[in-house]
Each structure stands twice: as structure tokens, then as C-alpha cells.
Amino acid sequence: MLNLHVLEKKLAGLQAETQSLEPQGEALAALTQKVVDYAHHYLATVDKIKAYTGQAAPGKRLRNTPFTEEGRTLDELLPVIREDVDTPGINPASGRHLGYIPGGGIYPTALGDYLAAVTNQYSGVYYAGPGAVQLENRVIRWICQIIGFPATALGNLTSGGSIANLIAIVTARDAKGVAAAKVEKSCIYLTRQAHHSVHKAIRIAGLREAKLREIKVDDHFKMDTKALAAQIAEDKANGLNPFLIIASAGTTDTGTIDPLARQHNLWFHVDAAYGGFFMLIDAVKARFTGIEQADSVTVDPHKGLFLAYGLGAVIVKDVQALRQSHAYQANYMQDVTEVEAEPSPADLSPELTKHFRGLRMWLPLQLFGVRVFRQALEEKMLLCQYFYQKIQALGFEVGPEPELSVCIYRYTGNVANPNRFNEKLIRAIQDDGRIFISSTTLNGVFWLRLAVLVFRTHRAVLDELLAILAEKKNTLLQLN
Ligand SMILES: *Cc1c(COP(=O)(O)O)cnc(C)c1O
User: Residues with Cβ within 6 A of ligand 1?
Assistant: First the structure.
């Protein structure tokens, strides 16, 4: 150990050296201003940027920008971010992003994140951050209200829908007593349309050996509840242990809402990551009837509330069950007194220290009010209906009438191999890049998909897409 005199000198030196970690005054203002300028320029031009930019080998500048001992300036770094991060691939902020389930990223998400990061509020444990935890729990209770859960329900703000599904499935496993020795005899019911994050969660939750019952869907891709009841009865008769039903409220492929009804006292989880917030629209709410009977529901504010990526949520009716699966005590946590004015996220999720992600949702909702979110969701839904009618006028075949803001369509007129033709068609549209759409395969049939969920998408974008589809289709027909 150094002697005290040397130690004091050394500390003074290190303190002086590390001042650069705390930019002050003009330096602080200049740093912030450069980032704000970048952001404002991005927002001013976002409508003109292509929705998809393919590059042969993206990332050259990143590879040439290793970490250094001395550091670099923002003037050096912002171009790297612009060229190598914000340019190649899909532009998720673009109103022309109509593939997968898009997000958008309303601006106050960034402001909420900014404040959360500057103050570094601790939102894991109530005693450490009573304000932050209250704020997050209020956000969760607001979600509970929309879904029709009682005031006693709660849940967790997660990084996204995948982790929300994982928390729900782990809770279901424990609440239904599916210990390791019981896994092989335990049955989970879902359809082929369940999101792949559900399958991942089942695997991560140690339920790989459980019996996954893929219940057949009707011609609207909805779970056949008669087949579900029959399968559960058969499994029970065979001495198995049915314990979990997973329905989708807004499938990713077609935006379909499964019939939502709790059956036979099994844990009922509804994955409403895509569709949940459409319940804000009164006229649409009835399509979700039964979701209020669920034991747990996943929603994804970074989809349905247009927030920037990084916010999902799970709500659970039996908070005690959620706590049983996730709470833990440790010696070094002994100062955490049980002031249970508010449950702590750390007791209801796998996380301890975490991003104070509630602020990025609370702030936009407070600033803008709820009505405009409802209106934006209604607009997205009606845009999908608009497209669904217009695309048929172009001679395309369509899938089921859209229930939310996703629909499927394909061109089949006069082509020998429709699957091949539509594959070529989507490739041509992705190469073009002005608008990004994605595709799916259902029962061996290749479909193009439309998913409208970026708040920046308005009618002109759909008209542009229709024009591009007509143009590319005609070009391909001529080549044939
Ligand atoms: C997007 C989605 C998920 C996964 O959510 P992430 O936020 O991407 O982790 C789960 N289920 C459905 C239905 C989805 O659309």
C-alpha cells in the first residue's frame, strides 16, 4: 500500500486528470448543441431518407474507429454514426417503413431517456428511487386500465415484448407448479401464428421438453377454440398436465386477434405486443373481448405507442405469483427496508439495476395527451383498410380483411409460379429502397405484408407504395 503522503499527491493528480469526465460550461453546451443539431437535421430530413439502403459491406468507418487512449471529438464521431449507423439497412424512423412490425420513435422518447440518463435515477427498488418506481408503476397501471385488468394488477416495464413474454411464461410455469420433474408431462397450447419470441421464452424458461400443442387455425388464422378444448380434454384424459394457453392479440403475420377466452383454469397469456394499444380505440375494443380474463398480457409501447425501441411491458393479475418467481433477498441488500408503499421492479422482474425506462413513456403521454395516440392508431388502421381496397383494384389477391393495421396480399394474375413471382417482386421493392415492406409464408403460400405502425406514415406513403407495386409488377410481367 502507498504511504499517505504519496497517496494524497497521487489522488490530487488523478482528480485533476479525470475532470474531463465532467464537461463544464461552454464545453458542456457545445457537446449538447452538436448532438441536438445532428438530431434536428435528422428529423428535418427523415421524410426524404430511403426506407431501406442496401450496402455491400457496411461499417468501414466503424472498423476504422477503434477506441483510443486520448479519445476523439464529436466532429469526428458524428459522421461515423451518420454514415455507418444511421444510413445502412432499414430506417426504422421512416414513415416509409411498412415491414415487420415497425415502431417509429416519437421525439419525447429521446427527451425522457436524456433526463433519465442525466439524473441516473434508480428505478429498481422503491426505497432508493421512490419517485422513479412510482412513476413506472403508474405507467404500468395505466396499461392495466386499457387492457381491463383490476387495480390490484401490476407488472414490469421491459426492454421489449420478448422479455415481457419470458417473464409471463416463467410466472405461469411457477404459478402452475411445473417443476423440472413435471415439465415433460406439461402441455402448452398455442398456434403456428404465435410470435417466435414465445418459443424462445419457452426454451429459456426450461420448458423445452414440455408438450407444445399447435392448435389449428381457421381460414382467418384464428385459434380454433373447439380444437383447443378437445386437445386439452384429451391431454387431461391421458394423464398429462395442461397448464398454459398462449393467444395472440394481433399476430405478426396477419394482425389477427385470436378468440380470447380463459379455459379450464389454465394460465392464460395474451401476447398483445403488436395489437394491445389499439384497445385505446373504443370502436376496436370489442375485438379484444376476453383479454381482461387473461392472467398475463404482453404489450409493446415501442410498437403501439410509437416510442423509440427499448420499451415493452408485461402485466400480470396475480402480483404475488409474479413476485414469487422474481423476488430475491441478498446480504448486501439488507438496508432495503420493506417500505411496501409500492412494489419494486427488482422484485417483479429479472433485473436489479436497470434503465429508468418509464420516463420515456410517461413524458410523451403527459406532453401530448392520450387522444392523439388514439387518433394516430385509428389513422394507421384506416390506412391499412385503404391499402387493402386499393391493392385489389390493382389486380392483387388479398388475405383476410385486416382487423388492425396489418394485411397480406400477393399478385397471382397470369403468372406461372406465384410464389416465385412475389419473391421477385419484394426483392425489386427492397432493392429500390424507397419503401420497405416484408413478406411471409403461410401454408406454403408466399405473401407480401403491409404493416402500418409508424406515426409518420400517412396516406401519401400508401399511394407511393401502390405506385411502386404497380410499376415493379408490370416490369416483372414484361420480363416473364
Ligand atoms: C414484436 C413482437 C414480439 C416481440 O417483441 P420485441 O419487442 O421485438 O421483443 C412478440 N410478440 C409479437 C406479437 C410481436 O409483434
Answer: 101, 160-162, 165, 195, 197, 248, 252, 271, 273-274, 300, 312
| Grid cell digits, residue 36 | 441536438
331 or 319, which is more confident: 319
What residue ranges in 18-141 does DSSP mark as E strands? 52-53, 89-90
Q: Write the CB contacts of 425 (distance below 8 Å, at least 6 apart in sequence).
A: 411, 448, 469, 472, 473, 476
CA 156 to chain centre: 14
Please give the order of strands across the beta sheet that includes 406-410. Answer: 397-398, 406-410, 445-451, 438-442
Closest CA to ligand 1's atom 6: 161
Last residue of a domain, one of 313, 346, 368: 368
Domain check: are 449 and 332 in the same one? no
Q: What is the mean pLDDT of residues 20-31?
A: 97
Question: Using 50, 70 and 90 to split pLDDT, how confident is the model at 337?
Answer: low
| pTM, 2 dp | 0.97
Domain assignment of residue 151, given as a range: 112-368
CB neighbours of residue 91 within 10 Å: 21
Task: Count up the domains in the chain and report the number.
Answer: 2
| Residue 40 CB-density burial (10 A; 0-12 exposed, 13-18 middle, 19+ buried) | exposed
Q: How far, in Å, CA of 387 to CA of 393, rounded?
A: 10
Q: Are 288 and 356 members of one domain?
A: yes
pLDDT of residue 81: 98
Ligand 1 atom 2, closest CA: 273
162 CA: nearest ligand 1 atom: 9
Look at residue 392 and tell me if it is in a domain: yes
**Ligand 1 atom closest to 195 (CA):** 11
Backbone φ and ψ of 270, nearest 5°: -115, 120
Alpha-carbon span 144 to 296, nearest angstrom: 10
Q: For residue range 128-176, list pLDDT tens digits in order.
A: 999 999 999 999 999 999 999 999 999 999 999 999 999 999 999 999 9
Distance 292 CA to ligand 1 centre (A): 20
What are the DSSP calls for 116-171, one per residue? Answer: HHHHT---S-TTT-HHHHHHHHHHHHHHHHHHT--TT-EEEEESSHHHHHHHHHHH
Q: Residue 199 C-alpha to ligand 1 middle, in angstroms?
A: 12
Q: State the distance from the centre of ligand 1 to the C-alpha of 195, rounded, in angstroms.
A: 7
Q: Which of 274, 440, 453, when mutated, tests ligand 1's pocket best, judged by the most ligand atoms within 8 Å of its CB? A: 274
